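Hi D.,

Good news: the full-assembly prediction came through. Inputs first.
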Amino acid sequence: MTGQQLHTRTLAELAKGLSGGEFSARELTEHLLSRIDSYDASLNSFISVTADQALVHATASDEARSKGDVSALSGLPVAYKDIFCTKGVLTTCGSRILENFVSPYNATVVERLSLAGAIMLGKTNMDEFAMGSSNETSYFGPVKNPWDTERTPGGSSGGSAAAVAARLAPAATGTDTGGSIRQPAALTGTVGLKPTYGRVSRYGMIAFASSLDQAGVITRTAEDAAMLLSVMAGFDDRDSTSVDHPVPDYVAGLTKSLTGLKIGIVRQHFDAGLDEQCGARVKEALSALEQQGAKLIEVDLPNLDLSVPTYYVVAPAECSSNLSRFDGVRFGHRADDAKDLFDLYCRSRGEGFGAEVKRRIMTGTYVLSAGYYDAYYLKAQKVRQLISQDFRNAFDSVDVIAGPTAPTPAFRLGDKTDDPITMYLNDIYTIGANLAGLPGISVPCGFVDNLPVGLQLVGPHFAEESILACAHQYQALTDWHTRCPEAYR
Amino acid sequence: MSGAWEVVIGLEIHNRLATSSKMFSGAPNAYGADPNTQACLVDLGYPGVLPVLNTEAVRRACKFGLAVNGTISHRCVFARKNYFYPDLPKGYQISQYELPIVVGGELIIKDDDGNDKRIGITRAHLEEDAGKSVHEGFDRSTGIDLNRAGTPLIEIVSEPDLRSAKEAVSYMRKIHSIVRYLEISDGNMQEGSFRCDANVSIRPSGQEELGTRTELKNLNSFRFVERAINFEIERQIDVLEDGGEVVQETRLYDSDRDETRPMRTKEEANDYRYFPDPDLLPVEIDDAFVEEVRKTLPELPDAKQQRFIEQYELKAGDAGILTMSRALADYFEATVADFGDSPKTVANWVTGDLSAALNKEGLDIAGSKIGPAGLAGLLKRIQDGTISGKIAKEVFEAIWAGEGTADEIIEARGLRQITDNSAIEKIVDAVIAANPSQLEQYQAGKDKLLGFFVGQVMRETGGKANPGQVNEVLKARLSKE
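Then the structure:
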């Protein structure tokens, strides 16, 4: 069949092709596996490729389809960020400490997508325990940006973003604790959706910072993101923080027109920290939306500058506790020939964790310590409330807030690894949505020197429909998302 | 202890709630299974798993709070207590810290002089238990059994209101009795379902300021609590009277040596870094829930004791013993109902022969080999004169041994009391005839010999003669001669 060009199609297009009998799930899967085989050496976007299992499932999917047994995502290949537990498959979280960890169970996200017929191609590379903005903290080596392999794809869901951008997978899951879906999407010219906190179950998603972590997707279109979210979202009684809120048909909601949509513009988003060229692309995108009938309204987020420091207290505090279970006792890396318990702990963890993870564990331990708790953790929680309140106030007058996703296009690998603070500032526009638990999406909105730029849309709680519709309408006007890095066409 | 010192004790009681599943997972909350068979991925702290609160544990903690007149918090928060230990799979214990489920409360106990004394309860909070490290049977290594990991506990913290080891035990017994009355816990101390830590300090009598305390960890029997505290009091007095200072530390009680020893400092030098668990939402408890739980409260020991005193005209001591456990009180009441007469007699039998038989075999009332109907059946035969009280003891033992009901045994063994006056007279005459010298002495004024004659008659009848009748006939015949 016409296998050669299947990778250029979106998930929605592939679904049509499969249902029309144009090609089989097996052909589609084989095609993508062969692309991964050919191209991923240059990108390092996968930690594990589950080729055998994928082919078995694809064949079974074709058989089921021939009997009329079809589900929402039947035969559609997806990749999972290696933070999602996948039964019987290596689940490393990008860390040496889980280098040998084969999960005995499936995350809810994996379970739901599989039940809907999606086929797992493999597990994508990521910053270790999702801690990083460049994918350079992965124990399995950095991921390269398909637009320029000297550059980072962003992080922590860098493997997922690179794989989708290079057309190795039509879609991949990601997680977003402080921009980890949206920033890599921006840097690779893909769509990255982080839903409302509690919209998608965290069960089986290896925890980094429990009050901020949220599962989402990286795709090429808002439509594809809507297809996947419709399946992934919903209450899960295994996650007490998942919210029992009705799940709409996100695809059906995409057609909502932009006319009359009130888009908030935050003055601080266009301050000195933003690359001028990036700013220009974002402003062009905003004008395009305005021309379609949206109203641009200036809003104020007065505590925006506190979001990065707040995040770097809350997230490390939670991670210092969440990562205590990796102790070499029950699973994962265990140091050889431990002299005693203390030695077992120190060396298993010392050998198992990388520098950035250790930095955050130490920071988190410090901010929770007796005598420092009030000054750091408690204060950060209070500021977090202020930031949430700022967003609530803003959403009194607008439907969505639009602005840049990241301050610059993709930077060079190694550029910021020695300077954690500069690295952290890469997430300045995205972190607010995590602290406030809001849904956000990044959509490709142009290029600077052949490097993609992302437009971020943030909505009120559970307003995924609004931001998806807005992103979809924008994509209908533009073709940025159809551009493919030359080497991967 | 020396009168110059006042002892100050506070207890932290850890009580396992007998829910069917664990606190935050669906694994069974069962004791005694093969290692690691009652633990699921959540209990094992696997990557990606999340806790889900067992609302039955909340209900039970709430029930306890109401039973001790505590305040049920409308909003309580689970917090993580962080420390590393191999039997703590997540590296933190989910507990409650700043906002516990029960705030305040009180109990009345008897002080050392037998007077009522109020003991304040500071708080009671919910938490999960850790697993167990197993040292036996492993060569130079340690086994981990996570069956216990995640089982629900309430930790009950008293005010430092206790003034002696005896008071501490009395308080602990009272709490033990309450949790069993409420049926929120099996209270099994051998299995570690009910254990406590004791904070002990002393201060010169009359001094307001508290002395430096030590914490005695993991005391799992009433006897150990008393002995450990008494040892610790003596030790602290010795230290202070020798001019030393008590060091604030955690100590372990060694029951073999009957002494307390400091724990290794590494184990206690923890900063637990408590913070609210972001995986669990704050628990909101509304008045409707509290009222619904309140409706399920049974009659509690103090109220039951008072009722027994009034309704059955029992002495406070007997009523106290009978209401120590709800099962014993129920047994008593069932027996009274069946017997239909003299609660006092029932109380004597339950606190006397029955308790002795239970103690002898180390059973509690649930294991009694005589049920309320069986005991009532026996008492009826005493009541109607079929057997004497003395014979009844023999029948009791036979019922206990499983030989049948009171009636069956009386029949089979021919124990029916002789109440036929002419038959008794015949035997009395024979006894008098056989003991002429005693008769002579009796008639010379040695009245005490009546007992001798009664004994002889009873021996002749195998104890079956009605004692009252024997007395009467004897007196008449002896004076007549």
